[in-house]
Amino acid sequence: MKKLVLALVVLGLAATSFAADEMDNKAADRVKAAATVLEEIQSAPDTGIPDEVMGSAECVAVVPSMLKAGFVFGARYGRGVASCRTAKGWSDPAFFTIQGGSFGLQIGGQAVDLVMLVMNQKGMDNLLHSKFKLGADASVAAGPVGRHAAADTDWKMRAQVLSYSRARGVFAGLELNGALVKVDRESTLEFYGKMQPFDTTLQTANNPQAALPFLNDLAKWAKIASK
Question: Considering the entire predicted model, what is its pTM?
């Protein structure tokens, strides 16, 4: 009987440890997924975020496989990671959730990859808060698409945040208004093992190992864009 109880205890501890590892991996997997999204978008020969835009971005936020449902307008929810430029390079990833909002004309339920670029200090100040609404606290507009955006200089003045989506292989600027962005406490705890303020993360460049896929991709494409 004692052996049976001991075996059950061991199995229970193993299951708990496995569940914890699975939970710990979710945030790290999201960082890898964000890196993959950015790499695939920017590697496309004729589409992607223009060099002029990427080179001017203060922060980059990626939401892999954001969930969308409903006819024309419906519920949206996603979890993503963001990084900002610092004096030491791109910051550690900050985890956030995004929900609600008007995403333009969308029919049917689908998952999309969402990319948001914070283009100036005002937009960055909003991002450094733990919670803000796009279109209200921070102006947002669909970003230009293509290898260059020289013919469309409005993006420099139009918005604090430029947004993009990729669905079914099609990459395009996205009208994104009313969406609420706030800190993802669960993912922050999973990734860092402790809770820390959003602004602290986005102004720190410790380069944790699990963040390198995303940070290295950001550094790569920002360097290409600056040439």
Answer: 0.80
